[in-house]
Structure formats: C-alpha cells, structure tokens
Amino acid sequence: MLEARRLSLARQSRQLFSDVSFSLEPGHALLLQGRNGAGKTSMLRILAGLARPDEGNVCWHGKVISQSPDYLESLLYLGHHAAVNTELSPTENLRYLCALHNDDSASIDDILSAVGLAGYEDIPAGQLSAGQQRRIALSRLWLSSAPLWILDEPLTALDVRAVAGLERRFKQHLEDGGMLIVTTHQPAILPEHATQRLELSGLDLEAET
Ligand SMILES: Nc1ncnc2c1ncn2[C@@H]1O[C@H](COP(=O)(O)OP(=O)(O)OP(=O)(O)O)[C@@H](O)[C@H]1O
C-alpha cells in the first residue's frame, strides 16, 4: 500500500498544496487533477521519490520511501518527457528497455504491435511522429512488472486507438492487483469503481480568478 501523509509544498513563494493525505490500495487508481501550474507534476515527483516535500512523507508498505530499498524496484515512473532514444529504432529502444528491466522473455514484436507500431519497427525514432514516439515510451507499461505506476500525462499526443489500448492496459494492471497514479485530462480512461480523485487547487492560484 502507498500512503501520502500530510504532504505540503511551496514553490516560488506559492503554497502549491498543504496537508494532503491519501492511501492507495492494490487494484486501485488515483487520478490527480488540477489546472496548469496547480502542482500535479510536483506531487508526482514527490510520490516517485524524485523530490522532497516541505512537510509530510510518503510511505510504501508502512515504511518511509527514502528508507524502503525495494521502493524503486516497485515503481515505474513515466514523466512528461518520457525518455526515448531518437537515434534508435522502436525495436532497438525496446531491446534497451528489456535489458534495463532484465527481461529477456518479452516478445518485442508483440509489444510493438500492442502499442500500434507494427510496420515502424526499424525506423529511427527521431523520424517518427510525436504520438509514435510517445507509444515507444509507453511500451514500458507492457514490459514492467512493477506494481506501482506513476504516469504524468501519458495520453499526450496519442490518437483514439492508442488511448483505447492504454485503457485496456490500465484495466489489466489494476485487475492484476497493480496500482496507478496518473494525471490526465481524459479521466474516462480509468475504471470509475476503482478510481479515487485528488484535486489540487494550486492554493494561491484560486486568488487569481
Ligand atoms: N523545481 C522548481 N523550482 C521552482 N518552481 C517550480 C519547480 N517545479 C515546479 N515549479 C513551479 O510550481 C508550479 C507547479 O508546477 P507543476 O509542474 O507541478 O504543475 P502542474 O500542475 O503539473 O502543471 P501542468 O498542468 O501545466 O503540467 C509552477 O508554477 C511551476 O513554475
């Protein structure tokens, strides 16, 4: 189980969020919402252990994540600019990812087909469209066995078919007992019954309206 305990963060003398707590159980998703600049990415980075809050902490199975050596192995984090080597083809990018995940069993062709890149396997990623490059990055979701996925705007640049494929992958991950924390402007992609919502108001932004 993942627990956020009384998280607070200020940036550029603005309080982004204050005293935020939640817990996430296996099989459940958390949808993080809020307008531009509200602090969603900042929150995701804290939950992934990439940044520290001003106050509060994040616990994984009851232990603070900085003292939980297995946390990073349990986590798949995909940021805004998910890493894709633009000089390598989709197949080569996936070979590299397989090596990273110590996975020699994955069928690269099957994964590329699942993410809709059949026919583009051997073209350098730099010559592919933004959405096709995004699909390469998202193929990590087919490779990883990490129980906790933290994804920052994963649907950016994706077309309707790719979004549908991702929706199926999310559903399967949750049914397998995985957990998902995600920011997206298309909340319908998440199963309603297994999803909790957390709205970040970007506290001082409220005063601007
Ligand atoms: N490392 C940093 N140093 C200073 N300010 C930062 C830093 N990271 C984020 N901020 C500021 O914190 C605020 C929240 O940024 P954040 O990226 O978390 O928002 P967001 O909700 O993800 O926005 P968007 O929907 O536009 O992606 C912004 O005003 C941003 O300028």
Automatic annotation (TrEMBL):
SUPFAM superfamilies: P-loop containing nucleoside triphosphate hydrolases
Gene Ontology MF, one: ATP binding
One of the GO BP terms on file: cytochrome complex assembly
InterPro entries, per the entry: AAA+_ATPase, ABC_transporter-like_ATP-bd, ABC_transporter-like_CS, ABC_transptr_haem_export_CcmA, P-loop_NTPase
Pfam families: ABC_tran
UniProt keyword terms in alphabetical order: ATP-binding, Cytochrome c-type biogenesis, Membrane, Nucleotide-binding, Translocase, Transport
Residue ranges constituting the ABC transporter domain according to the UniProt record: 2-209
Domain of life from the UniProt record: Bacteria
UniProt keyword Translocase present: yes
Protein name: Cytochrome c biogenesis ATP-binding export protein CcmA
Organism whose genome encodes this protein: Neiella marina
